[in-house]
Amino acid sequence: MDKDAHAFSTKKRREKSKFHLGLLPFPGRGVDSLGMGTYSQFWKDKIVRWIEWGIGRPLASGSARSFAKSVGWIGISFLIARVISSFVPLFAARALGKECFGQASLAITVGQFLQTVMLFGMNSAVVRFAAPKNCPREEVGSALIITLAATALTTAWLFVWGKPLLISSFRLSADIVNSGFLFGVLCVAYVFATSILQGLHRFFERGVAEILAAAFSIVGLAGAYWVLGKNFNTYVIAVCVGFLVAVVYSTHRSFSWMGVPILPTRKLLNHMTAYGAFSCLGNIGFILTFYFQPLLLNRLLSESEVGIFRVYQTASITVAQSLAIIFNTVFFPKASASRNRGELWKIIWRLWGFAAFPMALAFIASQLVLIPIAGRDYPMETSLIVLFAITALVITLQSTIGQFLAAEGVAGVGIGLVVSAVTGMSCLLATNLLVPVMHIAGACLALLFSYCIGLVLAWIAEVYLLRRSVLQSNVMREKAPSDDSETDWEAPPPNL
């Protein structure tokens, strides 16, 4: 081989290695200066192979592989964001002490309750209706109108009737309710803006928004503590700063991608309002378990015990909810647009069979790492650590099945409403019975008991809906004309 031929061969081998490493674009793909499209594709393919190894079988369909890639890809950014954000409440708990942190937790609980009502289920509706569309400007416009109307009505209710009711019923101060309202408004903006990205399948930008919210909440915590000192509003303001920055970024990215939302038709507005109403009411279980239970604990326990409960909850259940958000952020729009949810159902259960035990150990480890950060005011007890880890695992599993129900449309959220109501009422009943006797452990047991009930009911409901869908498909095939033409008897989602 002569010198020129050897040089040419060496150059080709280097280029080939760069293709495999994702440093250069593959033929037929878009070219950018860094080759990042190919680089991300390389790692997405790696993620798919890891998942296939975990479940013991290949992912045959393109939708399943696309789902696996998106979950793994957004999981990286969400993991970074959740690691950052998990330290914020723990640093706040350490700096503020048990009583002030307990008051801050109550203010955020009030805000979370208000934002659930203000959103009126539009965070789910905008994903459900936007996911199948290429440019869902009308769907986003409809969700925006409904959210603004619900926010205005909720605000009027709060300052006319709701504020005195909350103060008298749950031993709250006016300052806690006011701070909760501020948190609620900014949380509505944040959840709505990031839900639009989710519905547009812009999962990378969705992950960036999470990182921005987490990072700037740390900045907000430092600034608020410097100005306010040991005050419960320090923590509330810190989280609100993160929300505000993420809202600006998410809104800019969404509108740059799809354009400005437009006014919807009355038919679409009515359809999304009905879906949102069911979805909002379907959150009643979550409202009762994670919003009203802490308020109820404020009556049954001291503010110090409420603070200890929230630290354990942050180190376990909140971590579990973060993992569920990582998964559901990709899963819900994919499942909503999918025509073969039965296959996704089987894949999810295989994944759970592989991941359940390691996740339980991870929740134990997260408490062992995170609780000491909060300081000596929050003692570690082995029984509580194990109990909170098991509860976190059950809540994560129940959340996954709940996303299946939401993806089934109005029928699914209708059934989900019943499941959610039973879960929430069971939690409040168990809380009143167990907390006076077992204190913090009783509060966790109440959550575990109620979510086990919700898990069983949701599983039964989803199996019923999947079987009904299969039967309907079989009936449609039997009625189809028997010709040799290529006919797709699985109609796409209606273009409302």
Topology:
Blueprint: H1 3-21, H2 36-55, H3 62-119, H4 122-130, H5 137-170, H6 174-199, H7 203-228, H8 233-258, H9 266-282, H10 284-300, H11 303-315, H12 317-337, H13 341-370, H14 382-407, H15 410-438, H16 440-479
Describe this structure in words.
- The protein is mostly helical.
- The chain has one domain.
- 83% of the residues lie in helices and 0% in strands.
- Helix 12 (317-337) runs parallel beside helix 14.
- The chain is globular, with a radius of gyration of 24 Å.
- The model is unreliable at 3-39 and 483-496 (pLDDT under 50).
Helix content: over 70%
What is the number of helices? 16
- For the record, give the distance between the C-alpha atoms at the N and C termini, rounded to a whole number: 67 Å
Low-confidence blocks of residues: 3-39, 483-496
Instruction: Please write the string of helix (H) and strand (E) elements.
Output: HHHHHHHHHHHHHHHH
Count of strand segments: 0
Q: How much of the polypeptide forms β-strand, as a percent range?
A: under 5%
Quaternary organisation: single chain
- Major sheet attributes: none
Overall mean pLDDT score? Answer: 79
What structural class do you assign from the helix and strand content? Answer: mainly alpha
Number of domains: 1
- Backbone shape: globular
If you compute it from the alpha carbons, what radius of gyration comes out, rounded to the nearest whole angstrom? 24 Å
